[in-house]
Amino acid sequence: xxxxxxxxxxxxxxxxxxxxxxxxxxxxxxxxxxxxxxxxxxxxxxxxxxxxxxxxxxxxxxxxxxxxxxxxxxxxxxxxxxxxxxxxxxxxxxxxxxxxxxxxxxxxxxxxxxxxxxxxxxxxxxxxxxxxxxxxxxxxxxxxxxxxxxxxxxxxxxxxxxxxxxxxxxxxxxxxxxxxxxxxxxxxxxxxxxxxxxxxxxxxxxxxxxxxxxxxxxxxxxxxxxxxxxxxxxx
Length: 235
Fold this sequence. Notes:
The model has no long low-confidence stretch (mean pLDDT 96). The longest helix has 13 residues, at 120-132. The relative contact order is 0.15. Helices cover 22% and strands 37% of the residues. With 235 residues, it is an alpha/beta fold. α4 (187-194) packs parallel to α5 (209-221).
């Protein structure tokens, strides 16, 4: 059963820039002091009488007195301006947790995760939660960005792959710069090349709607059932 939605207050502890337009914010919970959630869920921030913005939790459920949110502030709208203005010491209010893009540990199928830029945030929470709590099974992450600077959690996933060998990490960029060692192209093309068989596979896809649809079409063309592709649309 998912945790119930709560009215919350928290204090900003730290703000970090992970990529040119991607910010990460640590919050210490004030009300309630303990915030239960499932990896992959998000919170809703009221920014006006009829304006609400959702921000996905990047941290894992292991630390429930402090959570980390992450956002792409490129759009420049009211939500981007609010997130950019966050500073240590500030108190914010939100509701949460919300969202059903969570991993079912009882499912025996091998997970394939595909993320596009800021769509990595729920998958970041899910994967670290899995491997830090004894998951032990194999999983693959295909993490796409326009160029390496937008792979906000690249170093973390490289570390995860070294620490937990059952985990396979495949970073992909459209435009490589410098001594890029990963793959080049688009996420659906890498899924086409890398997924030889869909037998015993379940997919979790997160990012823009166009990428989600294209990846789903690739997997369905290989024989995967539509319901075996879980997704979280960011734009």
